Amino acid sequence: MTSPDRCNKAFTLNDGGLGTDNEKKLEDSIVHALQSGYRLIDTAQYYGIESVVGRAVRNSGVPRSEITVITKFWSHWHHDPAEALRISLKDLDIEYVDILLMHWPFATTPAPERKHLRKDQSPTFVETWKMMEKLVGPQCRAIGVSNFTQKTLDELLPHCNIVPVVNQVELHAFNPNHQLVPYCVSRGIHVMSWSTMGGEREGEANLIHTHSLFKSIAKRHQCSTGVVSLSWAVQRGVTVIPKSSSKMRIAENIKLVRLTEQEMAQISRASETIMKYRVSDLIKELYVEVDGKETFQGWTLEELGWADKDGKWLT
């Protein structure tokens, strides 16, 4: 969730979330955030909270026209994104979504089978995108993608009548996407980051909260390490989606700071000087065996564009 006014940073797209297990607490958190100045809400069918998000939007007292609502459809709807949109609109109970995203480039067969498809099997993400283009109108103001790389975008863009307005990707100091961000900018695609605070690594402390680099920068700016990470991304021209159910952190995260060039460079080098990792690699349920080989939902990391055949990171 982001705020263009309180963060003193608004981005123009090429067409001109919060989380908790308790629905009431989640609704209250979103209402509080909207009333505090946040104006973008990111959700997805996969999260199972669209009805709560819609209720919060309606109960916030903030005009719907001032709120950007983004939702995403999962892989079993690649064959019918129109039906996915219909279901999201019904669950959200709002007249339109501002941006509809393809959650991942990989697809499965429809429910209930949901068999993982290989990259060249239909529907390909290009076929799904062509169906999405037909949805742009009063109920779906814009369309975009999520978790796409230079490789998958290179394969998609030659077939586009409508260029994705957004590419929503994992982005933080340990997965900085130094090549992907300028690639998207050069093609008029706005980058939006998820897990900007580094995510949780099982059994290990979150280094953005605990490492001396981030703690020393935070001390100089009298803010939290989380705000340092969010500020770093925004100064790169990236929209961030901070996730918190704490009203104190919701209020804090909206107050970004101006980092120096040296501080920006130090954080940007953290994947080389400290460590690098992808939160996505830690989501074990996304890894499945297909044809006797471990895959990421049926695809290799090379097919996703995350790495070359030797395992070197490409984004």
UniProtKB/TrEMBL annotation:
Q: Which residues form the active site?
A: 47 (proton donor)
Residue ranges of the NADP-dependent oxidoreductase domain?
A: 13-270
**Cell inner membrane found in the keyword field:** no
- Residues where substrate binds: 103
The lineage's top-level taxon is Eukaryota
InterPro entries hit by this protein: AKR, Aldo/ket_reductase_CS, NAD(P)_OxRdtase_dom_sf, NADP_OxRdtase_dom
UniProt keywords (A-Z) are: NADP, Oxidoreductase
Residues annotated as site: Lowers pKa of active site Tyr: 72
Q: What molecular function terms (GO) are annotated for this protein?
A: oxidoreductase activity, acting on the CH-OH group of donors, NAD or NADP as acceptor
- One of its Pfam families is Aldo_ket_red
Q: Please report which protein family the annotation says this sequence is part of.
A: Belongs to the aldo/keto reductase family.
Protein name, UniProt field:
NADP-dependent oxidoreductase domain-containing protein
